[in-house]
Amino acid sequence: MSTRSTTAVSPGTETSTDVESAFARWLTPLVTPDDTDRRADGSVSLRQFGYVRMLTCASGPLRLVRAPRPAAPGKEEAVALLVPRVGTVRLVQDGRGASVVPGESALIDLRRAFTVEHEGAARTLFLRLPLHALHVPSVPLRSLTARALLPPAGSGAVLPALLRHLETSAPRVSAPLGERLGGLVTDLVAGLVEDLAEDTEGPPEDDRHPLVVTIRQYIDRHLGDPELSADLIAAAHLISVRYLHRLFEAEGVTVGRLIQRQRVERCAGELARRGRSSPSIAVVAARWGFRSPAHFSRAFKSVYGHPPQQWRRMAMSGTADAPRARV
User: Fold this and answer.
1) What pLDDT does residue 199 have?
2) What's the CA gap between 311 and 291, in Å, rounded?
3) Nearest 5°: CA angle at 32, between 30 and 37?
4) Using an 8 Å Cβ cutoff, are 96 and 146 in contact?
């Protein structure tokens, strides 16, 4: 565990090795982790450009959560532009999730609940801008949060170059110049939001609730985790278990049934593969999150009508049914 401290590096610059506390003070109030051993090791630096705050975070595994509650009275309403420099950052907000990589950016509305996390070492830039300075209505802003954004052609293309300049030359920028640069950053972000909001107008491609699509993707990525459950999924997406089940009523399948069905289908795909050395049924079952061979056998038979060992022999001989389409 690193030593927690805040140090003034140069005029207008602060650094802290207490990552969560730094974000809570400089970005927005966060949910404090209950387990102090899970606190992120790393550092956060703050540089002020007028009313724009630039936070540069370099850390190992990190998870930042803003609770679904309004900001304290007197707190300035603000948004953040997230810009990964090293590593992939996962952002969830407004029923959507996005994996943001270097070369992309993403918007966070700091007034509402969100989760930002990465599993390994990463370096990420956060630009905190007051909402009133952007002059952007809430509706187009909400359509762009938690989306991986590429700068459009035109003035928006200037923003990445300006941010690079600010990162490298921040300690040498005077306060008056920094204030003007902060205003320029704000204008460019406002233009980016306006341009991208126009691109997102139009009817949705899918009648599904966008959060259902996000949750299905989450389930796909975590099928091998034996702990995957409705409780875990709801917590990861900052919703209640009751609301999660309500979302899936229109899908015609429960969350638990969906998880089991997809696990069985992944197992069936592996069991049907021909090769010199095929993994055992127990190994395949464990790989896809089944806790016991007996549980796996019952689940498999409920989908394919045969125990996995018999179905595997049939698959090898070409007499087994192909894996069914997912629900």
Assistant:
1) 52
2) 20
3) 135
4) yes
Q: Which residues contact 310 (CB under 8 A, 6 or more apart)?
A: none
Is residue 163 domain-shared with residue 237, that is, in the same domain? no
- Residue 185 to residue 306: CA distance in whole angstroms: 62
Q: Indicate the residue type of 316.
A: M
Instruction: State the distance between the two ends of the chain, measured CA to CA, in whole angstroms.
Output: 45
- pTM score: 0.57
Name the residue among 110, 26, 128 with its Cα closest to residue 70. Answer: 110
74 in the same domain as 194: yes
Given a contact cutoff of 8 angstroms between Cβ atoms, the answer to whether 19 and 42 are in contact is: yes
**Distance in angstroms (rounded) separating the CA atoms of residues 183 and 181:** 5
What one-character DSSP code corresponds to residue 102?
T
pLDDT at 327 over 80: no
**Amino acid letter, residue 131:** L
Residue 41, domain member (yes or no): yes
Residue 167, pLDDT score: 87
What mean pLDDT, rounded, does the chain reach?
A: 80
Cα–Cα distance, 260 to 262 (Å, whole number): 6
pLDDT of residue 212: 85
Q: Give yes or no: residues 262 and 173 share one domain.
A: no
Mark whether 279 and 167 lie in a shared domain. Answer: no
| Domain co-membership, 104 together with 235 | no
**Pick from 172, 199, 226: which residue ends a domain?**
199
> pLDDT tens-digit profile of 94-138?
878 888 999 889 999 998 889 999 888 899 999 999 888 877 666
- The dihedral over CA atoms of 31, 32, 33, 36, expressed in degrees to the nearest 10, equals 170
Both structure tokens of 264? 């069985």
Q: Which domain holds residue 163?
A: 6-199
